[in-house]
Amino acid sequence: MHVKHFSPSDGPALDDVDGLTVLQALSDPVRLEIVRQLATCGGPGELNCGKIEVPVTKSTASHHFKTLSAAGIIAEREEGTRKYFSLRRDELERRFPGLIDSVLKATSA
To answer: What is the value of pTM for the model shown?
Structure first.
């Protein structure tokens, strides 16, 4: 059976995103936890949306993923009926040096 691979939906160009938008997206604890899981997942750097553990309903989680994508923080890739998310760490680091690491460190338990 052939599996069709889709190009990732990278969201907006980070040159078009301001720091306030990124910080507002990261200000929600659920979205911050999504970013934390993506930042520490290892391997290819992406996770199936079902593997990301969040304490909210599917529809609410979907809203959080859309917010992170619209802010340019995560990229989404579809493979069949599955969605995979990855942190746009390299791009974010170029646009906002040290931001993701600083936010994750400052908010760690």
So the answer is: 0.85
